[in-house]
Amino acid sequence: MAEDVAEAEPVVAPTLAEQIATIPGVTSVTVQKGEIVALAEAAAIVEVATVLRDDPRFAFEQMMDLAGVDWPERTRRFEIVYNLLSVTLNQRVRVIISTDETTPVPSVHGVWPVATWWEREAWDLFGIAFSGQPDLRRILTDYGFQGHPLRKDFPLTGYVEVRYDEDRKQVIYEPVRLTQDFRSFDFLSPWEAMTTLPGDEKAYAAREAARKEAKP
To answer: What is the C-alpha separation between 53 and 59, in angstroms, rounded?
Structure first.
């Protein structure tokens, strides 16, 4: 009588998220709305980025962008978000690290040279510092700008306004002044049906007819 041969269980290959979770410095990996999100230690971001770029399982050759997020109520109020793309394997991952207002995070410009532009933007708009970044300058605001305009505690009007003074023949900075007497307010909005756009006369007439018929 032939012995029954037990069938071997199929070997299930680890998913991309499970593979990323094994990288030293990665603290957790989740899948949110079909996208892989990895949380990592800020001090280990260069090592994590290098593995994600060079390991053939990942091959994230491109950093598509770097973004900052401000959570003022947190001790480490800033999140730095790295969005990575593998052209070779057609896969993406989002890596997130956290820092506070005074602690710089290591620059990844040595892994992806394009990071210089994004790190300069994060420094300019959020005040996030990057250690090892040789060109940490403002990139969007003016040279003499004070503060970081995308922080949640930065006023919407800013602190100063810039104008060219014809008499002094130079650009000057002044405290923000919102003189109400000379501001123009336009309360007409076609999306609120307060006026009629050219070419919309028939629709307007139909609305008026319907409104009149609805009156008792």
So the answer is: 5
Residue 5, token pair as written in the block? 């041969």
- In which domain, by residue range, is 46 found? 16-152
User: Structurally, how many domains does the chain consist of?
Assistant: 2
Per-residue model confidence (pLDDT) at position 59: 96
Q: What is the mean pLDDT of the chain?
A: 86
- Which residues have a Cβ under 8 Å from the Cβ of 102 and sit 6 or more positions away? 129
The pTM assigned to this predicted structure is 0.74
125 close to 140: Cβ distance less than 8 angstroms: yes
Q: Let me know if residue 60 belongs to a domain.
A: yes
| Residues 103, 93, 73: CA angle, nearest 5 degrees | 40
The DSSP line for 47-100 is HHHHHHHHSTTT---EEEEEEEEE-TTSSS-EEEEEEEEETTTTEEEEEEEEE-
